[in-house]
Amino acid sequence: MALVLTLTPSTVSAGQTFQAAVTGAVAGEAITFTYDGATPQTVIADASGNASATFTGTTTGVVVAAGPTSGAASATLTVSAAQNCVVTVTATPSNPAAGQPVTVTATVTCDGVPVQGATVLFATTGGSLGVGVTTAAGQASVTTSSLPTGVNVVTATVISATTTCTCVGVSATATVTVTAPQNCVVTLAATPATPSAGQPVTVTATVTCGGAPVVGATVLFSTTSGPLGIGVTNASGQASLTTSTLPAGANVVTGTVIAGTSACTCVGSAATTTVTVAPAQSCVVTLSSTPASPSAGQPVTVTATVTCGGAPVAGATVLFSTTSGPLGIGVTNASGQASVTTSTLPAGATVVTGTVIAGTSACTCVGVAGTKTVTVGTATGFTANPACYTISFPPLPWAFATATFSASGATPGSLVTFHLGGANGPVVCTATADASGNASCTAVLNIGQVLFATYTATTTGASGPLQSSSSLGVCLT
Asked: What are the b/e assignments for 256-288, b being 16+ CB within 10 Å?
């Protein structure tokens, strides 16, 4: 068989390796490869008659493979000029202040093509800054805040790389001029400027570096009595804290930067502001009732008006009560008013008390109370009679029972409405009072309605709305 010689690759850059391989040799035959001025290599062909050798490309020329039995074969290698490896270095920002983070980036290319995976060492005359590995864009970076004031020459050197170029040892430099540290300034302001004791006060610290806002700085707010809390500066360089604990008198509030990174050294920078707190304003609770002269069983609305220094207090919770116990609670509206309506006040004079039990304002209102004496006249005679229900057979869920409701003492011809539970409960039926003032009606109750233990009859009399409640239960006979 004749030898066949193949070069892989057949075209290389100077310094790049290639393989010369033959087929068709006799098994065990000694094949000698020669190329340019390289030392010839003799390789024993394997059982399939194959043999190969590796050389480094130097110049374009003929490669020969020869054996004593199979003869010789040749192929021509083409060697191109070595590729060029280039490193460039940039720094951002180019003119930082002392202590400001600087990012140094090296870009490695081979004949203009990015080199990925190259390891780059960054250093100055003061020592190493760190290493980075190039990305697909051929870039490696390191960030440092340790560069001293003055001119710093940063060198980026490729210390390892796999590429068609010889990049190891290639380097470049960038000059980073570091200026003296910028000035960090903290200013404080309080709103409102002259609060009352117990009124919320917002203290705002503004942190700037060379006149520019410092973002992300942690500010500790405190007085001589201790810390008030912390805040973190926003994009405007402002951090705020709201407190209602400052006592009456002059309070010196200090804002101190305890953490934060910027071109300035801001940690430890502080400022003060004096917040003069006036004595607490007076909280007043007044009560009124409607109607002025109710009858027993007639609904009465008691209203508490809460003011602070004469201004309405919104959102205060008021407990209404008598010596017999609580009547209910209400929450003041924008006019500072809260109300409760009751029909349980007995005939005679009853003192109703309205007490603030919760609420936030410039005043300390919790615990402040007002009273109103409500004089209730004798009952009108309008009376709801006990009612009972008879279970239907079969007791269907929607027609479980039948009950007759009745009331006496109504104005003849007036409409009487019967409610389950209280006066605002569901209406089961209505009736018109006869000439004797009696009214009654029969209603079919569902399975849920029989669970009510009471009902209330309502009507309108000469003096206004009337109501009366009575029991509701199963008929026993």
From this structure: bbeebbbbbbbeebbbebebebeebbebbbebb
Please name the amino acid found at residue 240: S
CB 205 within 8 A of CB 188: yes
Rounded distance between C-alpha atoms, residue 133 and residue 121, angstroms: 9
Which CATH number goes with the domain that contains 97? 2.60.40.10
Residue with tokens 């006060």: 201
Percentages (nearest 5) of helix, strand, coil residues in the chain: 0, 60, 40
The domain of 28 spans: 4-80
Residue 456 CB burial class (10 angstroms; 0-12, 13-18, ≥19): buried
Say if residue 238 is in the same domain as residue 214: yes
387 with 470, same domain? Answer: yes
How many domains is the chain built from? Answer: 5
Question: Which pair of tokens denotes residue 353?
Answer: 């008390």
Query: Along the 477 residues of the chain, how does pLDDT read in single tens digits?
Result: 689 999 999 988 777 889 999 999 999 999 999 999 899 999 999 999 999 999 998 899 999 999 999 999 999 999 877 668 889 999 998 788 777 789 999 999 988 889 999 999 999 998 999 999 999 999 999 999 889 888 999 999 999 988 778 888 889 899 999 887 778 889 999 998 788 777 899 999 999 987 889 999 999 999 999 999 999 999 999 999 999 889 989 999 999 999 987 767 788 889 999 999 887 778 899 999 988 777 776 788 999 999 987 889 999 999 999 999 999 999 999 999 999 998 888 878 899 999 999 987 767 788 899 999 998 876 557 888 899 999 998 889 889 999 999 998 888 899 999 999 888 999 999 999 998 889 999 999 999 998 888 899 999 887 778 888 888 988 987
- Helix or strand (DSSP H, E) at 232: strand 226-232
> Of the candidates 277, 309, 338, which is a domain's last residue?
277
Domain boundary among 322, 341, 376: 376
Do 347 and 294 lie in one domain? The reply is: yes
Rounded Cα–Cα distance for residues 240 and 206 (Å): 9
Instruction: Report how far residue 251's alpha carbon sits from residue 199's, in angstroms, rounded to the nearest whole number.
Output: 14
Exposure letters 8-37 (e unless 16+ CB within 10 A, then b): eeeebeeebebebbbbbbeeebebbbbbee
| Distance in angstroms (rounded) separating the CA atoms of residues 158 and 8 | 28
Its pTM surpasses 0.85: no
